[in-house]
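Need a sequence for this fold. Nothing fancy.
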């Protein structure tokens, strides 16, 4: 008798906890979904919001239509890592409140935030399992057609799924120093992360690599980014100096007076000093170490593996991914 009662109690405890978490006044969400603050909205949304908060001479409806054209094939809601920004724009100009209905909050109307007095409504959630989410918009009494996804049929209740953007592939660029006056003749090989040309408001950590020859090194890093194993980064490779190790005065002038100012002027490099990382490789490892010692205020972070290991693309494929994962790993939910 006692064992039966104990088993019954063990079954009731989880149900009681759910009932408490979903009780009156509680913001309970399934699948560990959490609402985020307004400043966590997607960067592309943050770009258009100021224009609606401080209206000018433009027509807001035309502004949103232009912005939709700019978004192109980018799926809406907008997704950055696990942060998902839902958006609704009322082209009728008649709604004072719009709600989100979502499978992570069953039976509840989630009020969206309004941008100023405009017709743009939004809210951002941290969603670990977006493939399980169904959602639609409502005026409080009936579902609303989604202006960003007009191909939905009213007969299906206007329910839709969160979709994933295709990040595409990393891009390898070759910069000829002779054609760029600011580089003083120094060639660069540049690895850009997936979707670099679309995420126009993002900045990225940058690795400047000295002494790494060839271009095969990019494949292992590109794969990490395309697999979402690390945050997107940019890599700028100088190679060696005519097949030999760099000298300290020459490297210092090349990097600090030419390459780094040019890179910051042409690419969206993170302004955070610790996300500009100098890497020494092969025969140039020692001179990079000496350079860092002369300007620790400039090179706040550097990676200088043992010179006997840091030779060739094979060693890079073994060592570099592990190093980047230690800094920029994307933590799985």
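Here you go.
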């Amino acid at each position: 008798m006692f064992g039966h009662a104990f088993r019954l109690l063990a079954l009731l405890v989880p149900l009681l906890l759910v009932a408490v978490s979903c009780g009156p006044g509680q913001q309970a969400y399934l699948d560990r979904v959490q609402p985020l603050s307004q400043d966590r909205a997607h960067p592309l949304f943050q770009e258009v919001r100021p224009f609606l908060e401080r209206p000018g001479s433009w027509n807001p409806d035309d502004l949103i239509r232009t912005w939709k054209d700019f978004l192109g094939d980018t799926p809406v809601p907008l997704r950055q890592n696990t942060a998902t920004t839902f958006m609704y724009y009322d082209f009728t100009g008649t709604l004072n409140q719009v709600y989100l209905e979502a499978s992570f909050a069953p039976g509840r109307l989630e009020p969206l935030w309004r941008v100023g007095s405009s017709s743009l409504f939004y809210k951002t959630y941290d969603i670990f399992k977006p493939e399980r989410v169904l959602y639609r918009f409502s005026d409080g009494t009936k579902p609303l057609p989604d202006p960003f996804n007009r191909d939905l049929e009213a007969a299906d209740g206007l329910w839709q799924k969160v979709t994933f953007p295709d990040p595409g592939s990393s891009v390898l660029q070759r910069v000829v120093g002779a054609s760029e006056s600011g580089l003083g003749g120094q060639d660069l090989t540049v690895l850009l992360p997936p979707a670099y040309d679309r995420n126009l408001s993002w900045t990225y950590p940058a690795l400047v690599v000295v002494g790494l020859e060839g271009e095969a090194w990019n494949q292992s890093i590109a794969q990490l980014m395309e697999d979402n194993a690390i945050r997107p980064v940019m890599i700028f490779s100088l190679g060696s100096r005519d097949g030999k190790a760099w000298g300290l005065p020459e490297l210092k002038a090349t990097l600090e007076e030419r390459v780094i100012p040019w890179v910051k002027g042409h690419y969206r490099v993170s302004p955070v000093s610790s996300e500009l990382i100098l890497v020494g490789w092969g025969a140039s490892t020692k001179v990079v170490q000496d350079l860092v010692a002369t300007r620790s205020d400039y090179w706040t972070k550097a990676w200088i593996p043992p010179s006997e290991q840091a030779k060739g693309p094979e060693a890079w494929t073994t060592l570099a991914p592990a190093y980047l994962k230690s800094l920029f790993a994307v933590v799985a939910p």
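For context: Helices lie at 2-21, 43-53, 60-71, 218-226, 248-266, 285-294, 312-328.
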